[in-house]
Amino acid sequence: MASLKLQISSLNSSWSKFCALTWQERRLLLQAFVILLLVAAGLHLMNFQRLRALLTRLSPVTQDVSGESVLQQAAILSRLVQAAAARMPFTITCLVRSTALWFLLRRRGIASEIRIGVNRQDGGFQAHAWVEIDGIVINDRGDIQQQFVPFEQTIMPGGTERI
């Protein structure tokens, strides 16, 4: 019975948070759910490069948007993607979250980069993906590049480009 009360309390809390969002944020949250599902399915059906190329064709960046308001928009989108990912019935990986955020940013005309870094520790190997705008990390800790060394190439919409 206590477990049921906890679940109901959590559901009420989630509903309260949803109701506190603006209509535009609600729409973006619902878009994030759909995009996360599509990206997760896409990565099961094709490799990352092919999926990225498809998403690039579906969301050409037609304007070069920059400035403080862009970072604020990106931060809002990042939080909404994270909130949607946390409520999925299955685990959403960092690559799926980052690809979904990158796609949503592109649809708003905001150019960004998906960065992939590696960490070799205790004989193990870990990889992690995040999104950057003009070198600023959007959907992770600002010092993530110290924990995961980014590949020397950034993954850009038109292919790979050396930095």
Summarize the structure in words:
The protein has about 160 residues and is α+β, with helices and mostly antiparallel strands. It has one domain. Helices cover about 55% and strands about 20% of the residues. A four-stranded antiparallel sheet has the order 3-2-1-4. A hairpin with a 2-residue loop joins strand 2 and strand 3.
The domain count comes to 1
Spans of at least 5 consecutive residues whose pLDDT stays below 50 are 4-11, 154-163
Approximate strand percentage = 15-25%
**Total helical elements:** 6
User: Would you report the number of β strands?
Assistant: 6
Summarize the structure.
Helix content is 55%, strand content 19%. It has helices at 2-20, 23-45, 48-58, 68-86, 94-107, 144-147, and strands at residues 113-121, 124-133, 136-137, 149-150, 153-156, 159-162.
Detail the topology: elements first, then pairings.
Layout: H1 2-20, H2 23-45, H3 48-58, H4 68-86, H5 94-107, E1 113-121, E2 124-133, E3 136-137, H6 144-147, E4 149-150, E5 153-156, E6 159-162
Antiparallel strand pairs: 1-2, 1-4, 2-3, 5-6
Which features does this protein show?
alpha+beta, 6 strands, 163 residues, two-stranded antiparallel ribbon
